[in-house]
Amino acid sequence: ATPVHRHEYQVPPYRVDSLELEFSLDEEETLVKSRLHICRNDGINPHEPLHLFGESMELLELSLDGKALRLGDYLLKSDGLSIALVPAQFTLEITTRLQPQLNTQLEGLYKSGGMFCTQCEAEGFRRITYFPDRPDVMSRYTTTVIADKARYPVLLSNGNPVERGDYDDGRHWVRWEDPFPKPSYLFALVAGDLACRRDTYVTTSGREVTLEIYTEHENIDKTAHAMASLKRSMRWDEEAYGLEYDLDIYMIVAVGDFNMGAMENKGLNIFNTQYVLASPDTATDTDFENVEAVIGHEYFHNWTGNRVTCRDWFQLSLKEGLTVFREQQFSAAMGSAAVKRINDVRILRNHQFPEDAGPMAHPVRPDSYIEINNFYTATVYNKGAEVIRMYHTLLGEAGFRRGVDLYFQRHDGQAVTCDDFLAAMADANNVDLSQFSLWYSQAGTPKLRVRDEYDPATQTYTLHVSQSCPPTPGQSEKKPFHLPLTVGLVDTDGKDLPLQLDGESHALDTAHRVLEIREAEQSFRFVNIPKRPRPSLLRGFSAPVELDYPYTAEDLAFLFAHDSDPFNRWEAGQRLMSDLLLEWTAKGIGKLPQPLLKAIQETLAHKALDAAFIAEAITPPTEAYLAEQMQTIDPLGIHASREALRQQLAQGLAKQWLSLYQELASDNTAYRPDGDGAGKRRLKNVALGYLSCLHSESEQTRCLEQFRQATNMTDQLAALALLADTEGEVADVALREFYERWQREPLVVDKWFRVQAMSKRSDALDRVVALIEHPAFELRNPNKVRALIGAFCQANPARFHAPDGQGYRFLADNIIALDGINPQIAARLAAPLSRWRRYDSKRQEQMKLELERILKTQKLSNDVHEIVSKSLA
Ligand code: B3K
Ligand code: ZN
């Protein structure tokens, strides 16, 4: 496969103003007839051939303006068909034959359970019919779906239903019209025997919109939360951005087999069941939050993605970074903004930072790719969202909104680029953002080094800031970034000092201020500082960088107790713990320092902090985060240190954990998945986790009791996870009970797999290997693969990196097995092996051997080939 390069972009020679599609769905084969109304674009040479992408289907008929074409009139290749000479304007009719029931890649038209559904982003439409399948070709779609009425009573596509009818042979049909021109990647179709939850929403301007959520019959009672989330999303987008929904109907369909989380098809979102279904007894608080976030995300795409779309796939972050940011703002507004920010940064650090430091590092707007599906990454999504957040921080709320308004004013109905977004931000605010554009083109996580000095004589305090960015594949030299550094100066009482820079007439009346960093080295001198302050740097994590400032343990304990910025308060605690854990990992486990114990104890007792925040603050940094801090990663050492810290905190504060647990467990209010309830459950279960570290029989009994008596999945699963970590037989008892109770709920069975995959038990790998054979496990189902194989290899580093290399072998075996079924999912699994250079020489050797073994596999997909070959390069 040859790479595609961003700079080779050319405008499409032909456009398709409108098309009519007709699907005859059946068990053995599906026929797709399409009638395309095609025009040559202005300025295009009349001899320019017409190229239509198409793959994995059979071409039955092709005619141009009613005249049948024969092979020779057109050229058929494995990636599509071309017609050498076409008129300036014409109609092309195409009939193709597909076998969706055999489509295991889950791209294009496929079957999930008993229903037909589609996934067309990025390049799935070309597996349905021949088409200029690129996002800058936008067309009006009319779609007729025909199928057996008994088996497929519900027939859906984009837009509004306009006509329907029955045939004599038991089939029926429905015609849909989407008035908005859209790229082919937003096309969708669903047919099945589905239940529907219906509701209505009235927009600010008074239009009534029908809302429908479709699921298999047994699941419809789990859709109330999704519906409520959808209405909240619609309201929020009106209030925060002045954006209203534009069709008369908005549909969501939940399917059990889905490569990603969900898909924003115009008017007809298709979702992984995981992000729709939620009931207190089968879904955790986190599931409830995720449903709300993903429903919001897909809804927000209607403007940021659908109304204004991407010119080409290199611009993916134009819609994804912006939509993730909007989703983050929405979730922050619905719950605890501080905890939301903590979790967003955790995702960035655990997933994006390692990607940016590895062989797959790429800019937010990549320059080339072999398989676009490999670029739906944490960099495009999460770092992309951080880039949007930086505009917001630099320009302020009002300035950001001016930029977004101008963006829609200029580009509604267009397919545009990241440069267009930046230009709207710059023009609306009259600022020069040319240096800021480096965030789109340079990969790598910048390092921000901050040093300070205080001069008591002049009462001035100076911050010296320098930045650098490590080399990444294809980019050895980097230019300095333009970024916002939000800072506060904390005095010895823990209060924020008024901030006045040298040369300013007075101090700003804010706790913190945004310093604009543009140079490789820059200094900022604050005046009227009576005593040496402690700097609180990068508040709210104002830029996606690694901060280096020589905080002492004392500084950190102080900021952990006092910082007015909740993110930095949490961050101080995390740094305090990670400094200790890295030291233990390097030099051997020692005794827990009293100041840290005291800091945790005081946080626990802090009345003004909410439960959800406390739960985050007293949880040590993840093993993934710690690994990133090491030159050569020692996964077992990190695990042992972290466990030792948990153990010592458990013992040192045993009384506190017990009383905290008892207090929270005695709360008998009915389950509600709101922020307050969820925060208290989280804190309770963190306390239960510390109690379990005491490894006593009575603690195990306490866990088992919570497991058996829990009235909601959050509490039950938290207890099960702790039990599954223990070496004795109780683990098996609990796991058996859980499976027996929930075996008919696929999403709960996923949790059961995940808990075992992430178990701290020494035999975790053996168990995972055995579970691959379990009747409930299916390599064809992406949720199952992620729950068992994905979780083990990505979230259980101590067992995955077992010194005998068996974890690596297990992963490679499964990548190879899965590649023939679903290459997209297979390629995603390979990420942990791609980081092989970060480990000791023995592990490097073992991981490299497995990568080479994968590469030697016959008929390897482009997807896996791209990741593995770039990893070895
Ligand atoms: N836009 C889809 C992702 C499609 C993935 C294609 N491999 C989901 C989302 O980001 O909303
Ligand atoms: Zn998205």
Characterization of this structure:
GO terms for molecular function: alanyl aminopeptidase activity; metallopeptidase activity; zinc ion binding. With 873 residues, this protein is α+β, with helices and mostly antiparallel strands. It contains 27 helices and 31 strands. It has an 8-stranded mixed sheet, with no helix packed on it. A 5-stranded mixed sheet has the order 17-18-19-21-20, with helices on one face. The longest helix has 34 residues, at 378-411. The mean pLDDT is 98. Residues 121-122, 259-260, 262-264, 297-298, 301, 320, 373, 376 line the site of (3S)-3,7-diaminoheptanoic acid.
Q: Which terms summarize this structure?
A:
zinc, globular, single chain, 31 strands, binds (3S)-3,7-diaminoheptanoic acid, five-stranded mixed β-sheet, eight-stranded mixed β-sheet, metallopeptidase activity, 27 helices, Immunoglobulin-like, 873 residues, binds zinc ion, alpha+beta, EC 3.4.11.2, protease, zinc ion binding
Overall pLDDT metric: 98
- The CATH architecture of the domain at 4-193 can be given as Sandwich
Would you give the CATH topology of the domain at 4-193?
Immunoglobulin-like
Count the E strands. 31
Which regions have little confidence, pLDDT < 50, spanning 5+ residues? none
User: Which shape, going by the Cα principal axes?
Assistant: globular
**β-sheet strand percentage:** 15-25%
How would a crystallographer describe the biggest sheet? 8 strands, mixed
Name of the top-level CATH class of the domain at 4-193: Mainly Beta
CATH superfamily of the domain at 4-193: tricorn interacting facor f3 domain
> Kindly, what is the distance between the CA atoms of the first and last residues, rounded to a whole number of angstroms?
16 Å
Helix share, percent = 40-55%
Judged by helices, strands and strand pairing, the structural class is: alpha+beta
Radius of gyration: 28 Å
Q: What compounds are bound to the protein?
A: (3S)-3,7-diaminoheptanoic acid, zinc ion
By DSSP (H or I, 4+ residues per run), the number of helices equals 27
Strand order of the largest sheet: 6-5-9-3-2-12-15-14
